[in-house]
């Protein structure tokens, strides 16, 4: 299989999940020639500060341009990272961000538990790099209106993906070919 070539190194920023072999980010990582991934945390799994530091540690290992590819809570981690650190980023693909004001299914941490671990206040100013926020019209972790609000505040290009749920294997999305399209757009 030919690897997707990019000028920039792609840093995958997963959400709160552990490694999932059939997740679109895992499959994307296997298709990329220049890629790193933020590893799952072993302790303090809900700590926003620990997640931000994990992103920073991975970025310190990368020379040259970087594209961030974040999913779910990983999107929120990127916003917190950008508010704390300064490093040139070529662009970011922010997919299926959750809404900390929503009610989530039982299998997920509660928004209240995330708030208790430093996830709010969520940075609301423009991100210091170009970004594409890809949102679903039927995501059970965030309404499309909530995603629109985030995109406006962060200065992100908003893409309506349609009815793709939370863009995860449970929604039928392991392979997500549009990620390649968005990465190519950011890599120009």
TrEMBL record:
Keywords: Hydrolase
Annotated signal sequence range: none
A Pfam family that the UniProt record links to this protein: Ser_hydrolase
GO MF, one annotated term: hydrolase activity
Coiled coil: none
InterPro entries, sorted: AB_hydrolase_fold, RBBP9/YdeN
Name of the protein in its database record: Serine hydrolase family protein
Record organism: Aquipseudomonas campi
């Amino acid at each position: 299989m030919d690897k997707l070539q990019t000028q920039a190194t792609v840093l995958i920023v997963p959400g709160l999940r552990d490694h999932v072999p059939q997740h679109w980010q895992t499959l994307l990582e296997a298709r990329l020639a220049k890629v790193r991934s933020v590893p799952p945390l072993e302790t303090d799994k809900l700590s926003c500060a620990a997640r931000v530091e994990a992103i920073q540690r991975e970025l310190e290992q990368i020379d040259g341009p970087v594209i961030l590819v974040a999913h779910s809570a990983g999107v929120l981690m990127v916003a917190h990272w950008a508010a704390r650190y300064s490093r040139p980023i070529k662009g970011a693909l922010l997919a299926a961000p959750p809404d900390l004001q929503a009610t989530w299914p039982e299998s997920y941490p509660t928004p209240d538990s995330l708030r208790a671990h430093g996830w709010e206040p969520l940075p609301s100013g423009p991100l210091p790099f170009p970004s594409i926020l890809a949102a679903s019209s039927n995501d059970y972790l965030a309404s499309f209106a909530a995603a629109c609000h985030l995109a406006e505040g962060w200065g992100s290009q908003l893409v309506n993906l349609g009815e793709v749920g939370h863009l995860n294997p449970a929604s039928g999305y392991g392979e997500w070919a549009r990620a390649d399209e968005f990465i190519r757009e950011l890599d120009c």
